[in-house]
Amino acid sequence: NCQLQSLIIKRVIADAKREKDVLLETFASCKLAELNMLEMKYDTAFSVTNIALNMIRKKDAPELKAQLLLCRAKIQALRSNYEDGMNDAHQLLKMAERYNLYGLKARALLVIARIDVISYRDAMAEKHANESRRVAEQYGLSQDRNKAIVMLARISSLADCTATSGNRNDEAMKLALLAYRTARQQKDTLSVIESASIIADIYCSMNR
């Protein structure tokens, strides 16, 4: 229940303010922004994220700053501010590499890949998604690995069909089925939905 979650998070923020615990307030604000995104309240999520980033501007908290940058990059993409989203994602990528934040590096690469797809740069999107998968596999990040596979399935399903190259439906279907089965095992609801949607899209494409 998003409304209940929102109330609990806001209570945590209020308690953190009272106790002057800036890091806890910032962490809770990040969670609130993520919840706002799920509710499609993108402007609110953007505002919450900016306030939180400003609160810890002078704090030594690289992982928390990186999480907020990831959140803002996603929000920017959802608000169709692709250039700003790409800038945040690249800034996050530099932080992740500097502080060895491997999970956040994998996620930053997926944000970049998603913006590449929206911008019709499929080859670059595939490159970034493959790099995300490589990082996730190298450091045993199973959910991040599966999210990269979902992205690769989406990219393959969107590949241009030409007289010489044909399409990549078989490859896309193989990736999507792998992602779907893995997401169900991991109880990753969003990846289950996204991979199932890709499978349905491929079936529709094959039966046109």
Textual characterization of the structure:
The chain is mostly helical and 208 residues long. Helices cover 81% and strands 0% of the residues. The chain is built from 10 helices and no strands. Helix 5 packs antiparallel against helix 6 and helix 8 runs parallel beside helix 10. The protein is globular and about 60 Å long.
Key words describing this protein structure:
208 residues; mainly alpha
Task: Compose a concise summary of this entry.
The protein is built from 10 helices and no strands.
- From the N-terminal CA to the C-terminal CA, the straight-line distance is 39 Å
Q: Specify the helix fraction band.
A: over 70%
Q: Number of helix segments?
A: 10
Shape: globular
Radius of gyration: 18 Å
Beta-strand portion reads under 5%
SSE inventory with pairings:
Elements: H1 2-18, H2 22-38, H3 42-55, H4 62-78, H5 82-99, H6 102-118, H7 122-138, H8 142-157, H9 169-186, H10 189-206
